[in-house]
Predict the 3D structure of the following.
Amino acid sequence: MTTTTMEPTGGGAAPEAAPAAKTRHGGGGLGSYLLVRFLLIFPTVFILVTTVFVLMRLTGDPITAAQGGRLPADELAARIKEAGYDRPILVQYWEYLTSIVQGDFGTALSDGRKVTEVLTTFGAATLELAFYALLVAFVVGIPLGRLAAYLRDRWPDALLRVFAILCYATPVFFAGLVLKLVFAVNLGWLPVAGRASTGAEIQLQTLEGRSGIYLIDAIRLGDGEVISDVLEHAVLPAIALGLLTAGVFLRLVRTNVIGTLGTGYVEAARSRGVSERRLLRKHAYRPALIPIVTVIGLQIALLLGGAVLTETTFEWKGLGFQLVEYLQARDFVAVQGIVVLAAVIVAVVNFVVDVIAALIDPRVRY
């Protein structure tokens, strides 16, 4: 009797322990995955910093690159010695690494400003432009990708696929010039260049505690005309840069929605008489957005690269615009700092995207 009574109790305890063990395993899988992805940031950034340093030094020392031929030989040699560029390359490399860890990216040779100051001053403008462009990419690419999947293998689908290829293949500066010619010069609907008109920019620059992101500062200022002016200046650069990523999103959403529509659970819903439109909206659309999250990190790198051409085309004074000026001045100290910052941003954004993807789709963790 006693044995018979205890056996069911023991048998019932084991199934209750199994879900708990499974939960612990799942949590450990997520924790391990996130820890590994976080730790990978450091070697990634280290490799990128080392690569940038080596490439910059292959051109010679920065002072000779920037001032060579403009200064007498003795003065040039004195500046090189003062800056420490005559020391062994490994010593320079170690000092550069320690400076970066302390947040010191050096001093620009062309204008004498701290590179950290340049990054904080112009970085907000590039961040604002990247946000606008990503917003355009979402608004254009995702709905059109969904429409292409719904009308697959019909003529609108073919047109949308061609549109996606054109968006991705068209150079950003060419798209920007066409947009300026049509909407700014010929039609006169939008400003040609800049982040804001002169009057609005003066108000934003003198705002106490400004963030450097004009839209936020304009909202804080509470002036509707300034807000409208800032948004009007952002339209063309955002479209020129955003269409580049919109083409990627369009094709990605289309492919994944079509793939999801062919899965077993969608076929089961279809057999129950669920309409194609409802299948698309309820069953296929949301799962197809998961791959979008996983490629956002790569698209951020694409946006930062495209920002160089976009900012130059529209005179949007961000890091890309400043980078071109430093390249023309052969100021490799400033160039090195901007490139390293971009590399760090891309590494961090990729980690954040990995975290979001792991939370959305448990399969990513294993």
